[in-house]
Specification:
two-stranded antiparallel ribbon, about 25% strand
């Protein structure tokens, strides 16, 4: 499990937590096709995060073992 803002930093979308926060609050992030404004939203394997038309599969990036 990983928080949305941490995930955005991990995949390189946002270089800092502050920038990740603003992307989320500005409505630029969708989780599983739904607009998400909670930076602490917990992502699990199988979730899909979309930012600026590019989609990331959480399960392929985060190892849950």
């Amino acid at each position: 499990m990983i928080k949305l803002d941490q995930f955005l930093k991990l995949v390189g979308i946002a270089p800092t937590g502050g920038q990740a926060k603003w992307l989320i609050l500005d409505g630029a992030v969708k989780v599983n096709g739904v607009l998400e404004t909670r930076r602490g939203r917990k992502l699990v394997s199988g979730d899909r995060v979309t930012v600026e038309g590019k989609t990331y599969d959480v399960g392929q990036i985060v190892d849950n073992s």
